[in-house]
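=== Structure Prediction Worksheet ===
Name of assembly: unnamed complex
Input type: mixed (protein and possibly other molecules)
Chain count: three
Listed entries:
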Amino acid sequence: MDFDALISGLDRHTLDGITRGSIYALVALGYTMVYGVMKLINFAHSEVFMVGTWTVLGVYTAIGATSGSGLAMVIGATLLALIAAMLASAGTALAVERIAYRPLRKKGAPALIFLITGIGCSMVLVEVFGQVLRVFFGRPFGRVTVNIPAVLETKTVFTIPGVDLAVSNTRILIIVGAIVMMLALDAFVNRSRLGRGVRAVAQDPDTASLMGVNQERVIMLVFVLGGAMAGVAALLYTVQYDITKFDIGFIIGLKAFTAAVLGGIGNLRGALVGGLFLGIVEVYASAVWDSSWTNVYAFVVLVVVLMFRPTGILGESLGKARA
Amino acid sequence: MIRSTKTWQAVALTAVAGLALSACGTTDTGGGSSGGGDEGGDCNFKIAAMGALSGPNASIVVPSVDGAQLALDQWDGGDCTVEMERFDTEGDPAKATPVATQIAGDESFIGVIGGAFSGETRATKTIYQDGGIPMISQSATATDLTQEDPVEVFHRLVPYDDYQGAAIAKYLTDEVGATKVFVIDNAEAYGEPLADRVEETLGDAMIQRDKTEVGQTDFAPTISKIESAQPDAIMYGGYIAEAAPLLKQIRDAGIDVPFIGGDGLYGADFGNAVGEAGEGAVVMCPCAPIDESSTFAADFEEAYGGAPGAYAAEGYDAMTVFLKGLEDGARDRAAMQEFVTGYTGDGLSKSIAFDENGDVPQDQVSYWAYKNTGGTLQPEVEVKPAE
Amino acid sequence: MSQILDAVRGLALGERWNHAPKVVRWAVMLLVIAFAFYLPYLNILPFAYIRTDLTASGSDWASVLFLIVVYMIVAVGLNVVIGLAGLLDLGYVGFYALGAYSVAIFGSTNSPVVQALQSRFGLSEDWAVPFAVCIPIAILVSLVAGVILGAPTLRLRGDYLAIVTLGFGEIIRITFRNLDGISNGAAGITGVPVPPGPETDGRAFFNTIDAERWYWLALAILILLIFLARRLEHSRVGRAWLAIREDEDAAAVMGVAGFKFKLWAFAIGATLGGLAGLLFGSKQQYVEPNAFMVNLSFLFVAMVVIGGSGNIFGALLGAFLLTYLPERFREFVDWRPFAFGVALVAVMILRPQGLVPSRRRAREFEDRRHEAEEAAADV
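=== Predicted Assembly ===
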């Protein structure tokens, strides 16, 4: 136990926690939006994220971006990878919805069945990158860890005076990127016409369809938006960690889902709060003890929070996101 | 109820028909052993390769099994027909025991290559012992396998963790000249004992120890511990999947001290996973560089489309020992067991012999530090751990 | 596919079964049980094609049968939690691990706890808690764990329960992995005791080679548990679960205390999970934390749901298929997980009510399907 290390490096640990939590939060948005509208845990969402990381690798390889490229190349490659990852992840999410969820919805199957098809889809997507694509195309696919070139090289941009905390360009990108995307999504859901439809269906699906909201379209929109956010998370993740692997989605997905519940599932701002909170708690606790207990910290915090606030920190409901 | 009477008549009829059918034949449950070794004196045998061929850990095992297959393909068997059967365990002891029971019960198997991991080996070695079938493991390094409750049939081509840990510590103090080493492990059955042994050997030369997890990608808490400890070298006991992001984050934080890992990082996959951040990282491996004149690397690449990965040479060697046994006239498990126990010869990875516990004698093992240069591991220096 | 199903339905087997004379029912049941016990020796074509050891890279048939039965016990237990009480438990592997680890920690001479007891009380190095005592310990530990987990969390709504239980399973595994002084950490514990028995051929009666003995033991326990679970389902507790599952508020109004009965379901499920773990650990004679990953919890849930949750025979069928098929088709090595995923999706889409749903569940499902169709027609 080393509480001194936590206290003396509090600023540093907080920044680390926010960085980690930003990615949790972005992935958590996908869980929370789908849950808000359909009351469904989309177990395949972790793999939607994983597909995004592979897309980033694909884009870099295709345009030949490597670390040490010129500024124009860095910006261009990163933007292109961002768009491609968002598209690929959104497309994957939509495909999962079409293949695994829509037929069940038409039959009015109970929630448990959606869970199993979600797990099935998750296995299929994992195996597509771990096995199927390897058989057809060989490396880099397969069950090994693959490096993604650090196109955006990590550099210290400025040092926060007083606490002497170095802040790097990648961290700024991750934190600012996550918060900007969240604000944009929040504004979209709260301000736009389509967003109003999403909130209406989340609040009361039957009344919403009486009011002329096309429920199917709202569901598709929710999967696309959640998927796109996972795509953003995928790019930010590769910027920070430089790797991908066929089963990389599992742990991120688990944590993001925990974050969504922690913040209040179905609540967009809850995903942000839950993600950041979870990231900070994990980093603090790992600084005091060590990282081999990380999942225990996460789940203990979850249980404690749920005991006092049974619907999460901010409470549920996408419909009342303004509250 | 007429209908129900008819039903039960039908049931009775089916039962009779079933009994009649049963006279039609029986299966041979010896495991499809048409090519078994029981056909009077000729030399038809099978060798089993058991390990994680699917699942997240397959990348550490598949190259060694491919290496064994390569040895078999290159072998001129003369009168002998030998096949290698791959048994997937996913590295899970629960899935390994049915496999082991099957292999032990099928007399056409004359040897086992594996278990690849220590856990599955622990769970299955007594089964193989009961079946009297010799095993040669290419990669199970847990100390207790041979030191605490050894079984006669178990042999391995890799030295156990205690020696490896000592070799890494020796490299750190003698070659790097480190006096403040930061030791990290992955809290798993491979990394933790290895790091324990490094810690023990280093003594005061270790300043701090931290534990991480398999599947972890964000190492920020560990990085900040490293920053405040100011080490002059970092040792990591674990696998490639976590070493890659760990290294990247260490270098991003501006920490430029040497990074040393155990043989869990050895293999062509290391360079692919770590990228530029891994330049100059050192991997300690109880394997001598493969002789320049050997065509192994080229042959392997031609057959499997990639440079030889983890333990490929050990897999090749394990198969070679069994094949030499067949050349020597071993025609059953007892003879093979006797041959393997007494075997001496040069292998790709080291010169091979087994002591009474089934370990390669210490003086036969050479530890080499490999430096990651331009994405491939280049032999740097040989290290002799003190006894 | 659907034609075959229709044909099967046309036979109206269930109805005929209910109308068959009692003697016939008993006779058929005994025959089925006798056949189950005979399975390891099943060697008659064409039936023997179900064996898993026919190809060169197959696995031992009796060992596979044992694993199937252990997972069937798990499915019976989880069916109580998911199928009867309607609680989504994604951390069932935690109880399974507790059962296996209990017998290892107290019964193995290699366990740190036993060694500590030896030196504390000056006992001999061969001393360990006898196997017979380990059984109640394992059952008690999993039961208590079920209550401890259930008490604070069962008040949560369904989906929250899912993630909390999932976390519980992870906490158990990580704790066993990290506590070197109790569970020997990541290396696991060897020398897990086996049930006592007469020595045959110089080996213990329950050994690692003669897997069929383990299979028979597990099968006997399974049959007993099925019998008990059936009785439970039709008891007052079983009816209370049904009421809670269908409408918790209505049940509460009628005086059915939701929390109490949910806790019952959780505790009973936990006990069965622990029992299955005990059998597994003992047969394996070795436990290690990586044998209890989260994925196993998902597999368990999939067994119950694929078979048809709520119906004990559905759960048994699910456990059989999901354990047996990957072993039977070992020759497809690393294509199996892919096929498994595809099969999960396909089966659930074609038969969302499960392969053999309980009659009540099937009716509930029909109702909902009509509602869904009507709703679709409205739009």
